[in-house]
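Let us practice reading a record.
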Amino acid sequence: MFKPTPVCAAIAILLAAPLVHAAPDGGQDVAARIDQVLAATYKADAPGATVIVVKDGKTILRKAYGLADVEHKQPLAPDTPMRLGSITKQFTSTAILMLVDEGKIKLDDDITVYLPDYPSQGKKVTIEHLLTHTSGIVSYTGKPDYMANMQKDLTVRQMVDSFKNDPLEFAPGSRYRYNNSGYFLLGAIIEKVSGQTYDKFVEQRIFVPLGMKRTAYEGHERDKAARALGYSKASDGFKPAAPLSMTQPYAAGSLVSTVDDLARWDAAVSSGKLLKSASWQRAFTSYTLSGGASTGYGYGWETGKLRGAPMIGHGGGINGFNTYALRLPAEKLYVAVLSNVDSGLPPAGEAAYKAAAIAIGNPFPEYKEVKLDAKTLDAYAGVYRVEGNDTRTVRRDGERLVLQRAGRPPVTLQAYSETGFFIPGSLQSIEFTRDAQGRATQLVVHNPTSDQVSPRTGDAPPPRVAVKIDHTKFDAYAGRYQLAPNFAIELSRDGDRYWTQATGQPKVEVFALNERTFFSNQVDAELRFDDATPGQLVLAQGGREIKGMKLP
């Protein structure tokens, strides 16, 4: 880690305009409708959220829901600091662009210009590739051993060493795949170029000038206000989230803030402070892949449309917390939702989308289920391609459809029209296109901010059916298998039921497809054994196979 350097006294301080906590004409009614939706999501006796809605520079809703500390019944306050998770990436990208504007970094430079010992693998990975999640570098949070090691304090170098030698997943610039390693590397580059630690750079160059007193790299706060505790869903309510060393999220997700400070941040961004106009424009522009496709992501901001209105925003998910912040530039609307629970409640993004939609007078529809006959439902069954080996499979299950994306749990679809379906409790909807014979040709997933088209590629394979096997067959496979350093899967039996448990994850029940293959109904995955390779397990999930050997 590089030592910080003193702040030059000549740096101009950008004074943030104070937030005006007054509702515009009709704002009380809008605030009441937003409040009604949020109060139904976040209960008073459980972890909750803080929310701010700002329109035309005026705050129309600023409120806290639920508890900051469940054990001690301490309520959240609107100014309670929380972890931001990946909203951090906006600040990291802005820090990079500040250095670009100063002529110290070039976006098309190979990262080895700044990190000369980083393995290039014969490919040019640029600063822009890191900013746009198009580098092909393996994301360290997706590696099998990540959860087992996330409590460890590691240096920047140690973290980079943990993924730098992994083969690239694709040619830089050819594909988009969300990637925390890229933003971790951007933090290391900020330190190398500026001579300051990442936490000091963003503090002195962004937070202090903008008056963001409660925003900091966690563990380096200037304001000592108590942060909210973070929670995860448990069988009997909520439990404290798993520990995480904040040395690991780093420039990809280690900041804490409040909705008030985020509103100050947005006011500065929307007024063009900190960067040149052209740099802000690039940050908000969707990156175009080498093949011509748009990614829907700029530099630390997602791009899209919400209820027809252009939108930029970003979410965050980190141990104990779930967040989302968005801006509708044409509507001059900003919404931020910070929640201190990472599972068991709807994502913060849904709350932000609903609040924003109400604020612009175009709320999401409330669907009502209609019944379709079996013939109509059967016409939609099939496999639909997402990209590469990634697919969505649709099957009929009685009077409804079930959709399952490769490697993910199945979801039930309910019809609201002959071709349209909704997912209960979600803002997503599905629409099928049919040919003249009534057979489905594609499905379109309508997300709140974008649509995704998946063409039909074939019939759905028959559903997997569990068979009974002699328990001694399973018992021979029972034990722990190491799939990566510090990451293992354990197989066990409890009476007539078979279970598997990965390091740091809950138990999942599995069923026998045959004497050598086991599957889960919770996740689209299989565990396979082959007598030709005794002691080896193969985990097949999401189009990938990971092999592990049985531990003694």
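A brief commentary: Residues 1-25 have pLDDT under 50 and may be disordered.
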